[in-house]
Amino acid sequence: MRDASQSSDFRSNAVLVSVADGGGETDSFGSASAKCQLRSLQEFCGRQFERSEPNSCLGHGYNAISFVEDKSPKVQESDLSGTAYVPVYVMLPLGVISMDCELVDPDNLLKELQILKSANIDGVMVDCWWGIVEKHAPQQYNWSGYKSLFQIVRDLDLKLQVVMSFHECGGNVGDDVHIPLPQWVAEIGQRNPDMFFQNHEGRPNLECLTWGVDEERVLRGRTALEVYFEFMRSFRVEFDEFFEGGIISEIEIGLGPCGELRYPSYPEKHGWKYPGIGEFQVTLIPSIVREFLIQNGDSSLCYDQHLLTSLKTAAEVGGHSLWGSGPDNAGSYNSRPHETEFFRDGGEYDSDYGRFFLNWYSQVLVDHGDRLSGIHWWYKTASHAAELTAGFYNTSNHDGYTRIATMLKKHGAAVNFTCVELRTMDQHENFPEALADPEALVWQVFKAAWDVTIPVASENALPCYNRESYDKILENAKPLNDPEGRRISAFTYLRLSSVLMEEQNFTEFEQFVKRMHGKKYILVPYNCAFNLAVITSFFFSLFLLVR
Fold it and tell me: Whole-angstrom distance between the N-terminal and C-terminal Cα of the chain?
C-alpha cells in the first residue's frame, strides 16, 4: 500500500487509477486493480439494408428494400451476447465548467445526462482544470462548479471518471474552449520562460510545464510535483464522500500536453500540420556550434535549460561529453522522415549517438510518466519519427512501450490509450504518404500492457458516429486474435455533443453500448435512408397492394 502523502509518487504516476469494483488493495487515493477474463469473439460479414431502384407498384415514391452483403467485418449478435462486460463512459464537454468554476447550463446538462442514462452508460468523464480551480493564487482552490456537477451525476446513479488536467485547453484538435494555466503560473512564466518547453525559434509552448521543473522550486517555493500533489490532495479531501460512496470510479492524472504522456512535439498553434514528424524538445543547433558551446560551457542557444542540464550530465556520465545536445539534423515540425539525415532509413537515429540520445529522451518521459497518446503516423517507417520526437523510443528494432508499461505497473496504474477507432485502411486513403498504422500501434501498446498484467482502458481519438468506427472499437476492446481472451477495462467515448444526440447517431450509440456490455441487441440497419415513418409507409403500401 502506497502512502499518497509522498509527492514523489506522482512523478511517474498512474495514468488511470481504478477506485471502485477492483477487489484489490487500495491506497489512500483509492487506487485498485481488477482481473477480468473474456471469451474470444468471431468475425463475420454481416448484412445490411440497401435501397434498390424505385418500385412503381408501391405508388409512394419509396424504394423497395433488399439485403446485400456488407464487405466490412462485423461481430455477430450471438458472439457478443454473454461476453465480458466492458463499462462505457462518455466525456462531458470541455467547457461544462466555466472559468469562474460554475456549472454551465445545468438544466440542459441534466436532460442530456438523462438521455445518456437511458442508453445504460456506466458514467461520465470530466476534466478538473488546474487553470480553473487554482486560477488566482497558489493553494486557493475553488471546486464549486464541480460540486454541483458531481451531485447531478450521483443523483442519476452514474459513475465518474475524473481527469486531473494540468495542461492548457485550446489550440489542438477538438478544443472548442480556451482554458489557460493558472494566472499566477503564467505570471511566473513571463519572468522565467524556462518553465515551458520552447521550440528552436525560442517560442515558449504554454500548454504545460516542462518536465525539467518537476523538482525545481520555481513556483513560489514549490516544485511542479508538489503543486500537482497538493491540488490532488485538495480534490481528495473535498470530494471524500464521492470516493467513499463509490461514485468516483477512476482518476486520470494528466501532466503533459492534452493530458498525455508525450513531449509537445507537434503543436498546431505553432504551425505543425499532420503528418509532420514534429520536433525534439531539446536544442537543435549545428554540430560545430554545439561542440564549441559545450566545450566552453555556454548553453545560451538551448531552449530548455533544465532538460539540457540533464542531457549534458548523462553524456558526461556515459563518457561522451560531446553528446550533451540534441540532434541538429532532425528537421522541423512539418518535415518528412526521408527528408532528414536523422530519421531517414539508415539515418543517425540508429547510430551510437542516436541510440544514446533517444534512450535519454524517452527515459525523461518515462520518469515523468502519466498517460499514453497515439502517435500512429509514420509508424510503418523504420525510424517511427513522429513517435521519437514525442518521446517514445519505438523503432523497427526497439520496443518503446514495454518500459512505459513496466513503470506504470510499479505504481499500480493502468494504461489509457486513444485512437482505438482508427482503421489503417482509412489512414492510407486520406494520407497515404504518412505510412500510418494505428491498428498495429494499438495492438503493440495493448500487448505491452497486458504482458506485464496491467489494465488497459481506451478512448476514441476523433468523434465517431458510424458502425464501422464502433466495430473497430469493439474489435480492439475484445480482440479476436488474443488467445488469452483479454479485454479492455473500460471505454470512454469522445464526446457528449448535439451531434451525438441526433436520433440516428444516438440509436447507433445505444447499440454500441449494448455490444460493449455483452447484452442482446436488435441489429438496426445502419446508414439506411429511411426511418420508422418510411417503414410504416412501406408496409401500408404492401397492405394496399394485397387488397
Answer: 76
Scanning the structure block, which residue is given the C-alpha cell 450509440?
509
The owner of cell 549517438 is 353
> In sequence order, which residues have a C-beta less than 8 Å from that of residue 227 and are 6 or more positions away?
138, 219
Q: Among residues 7, 25, 18, which one has the least CA distance to residue 251?
A: 18
Distance CA 279, CA 282 (A): 9
Q: Helix or strand or coil: residue 20?
A: coil
Of 198, 251, 272, which is closest to residue 4 (Cα–Cα)? 251
Question: b/e for 266-278, b at 16 or more Cβ within 10 A?
Answer: bbeebebeebbbb
Record the pTM: 0.78
- In three-state secondary structure terms, 251 is strand
Q: What is the DSSP string of 417-438?
A: E--TT--HHHHHHH-GGG---H
**DSSP helix, strand, coil percent of the chain (3-state; round to 5):** 40, 15, 45
261, 373 Cβ separation under 8 angstroms: yes
Dihedral in degrees, nearest 10, Cα atoms 229, 235, 236, 237 = 110
Q: What is the rounded CA–CA span in Å between residue 236 and residue 325?
A: 41
Residues labelled catalytic: 260, 459
Q: pLDDT per residue over 449-493, tens digit each?
A: 999 999 999 999 999 999 999 999 999 999 877 788 899 999 999
Which residues are within 8 A (CB) of 111 and not within 5 positions of it... i.e. 6 or more apart?
none
User: 511 with 460: CB under 8 angstroms?
Assistant: no
Burial group, residue 151, by CB count within 10 angstroms (0-12, 13-18, 19+): middle
C-beta separation of 344 from 337 below 8 A = yes
Could you report the per-residue pLDDT of 167-215, keeping only the tens digit for each? 999 877 778 899 999 999 999 999 998 899 987 777 789 999 998 898 8
> What 3-state DSSP class applies to 69?
strand
Single-letter residue type at 109: L
- Residue where the block lists cell 556515459: 318
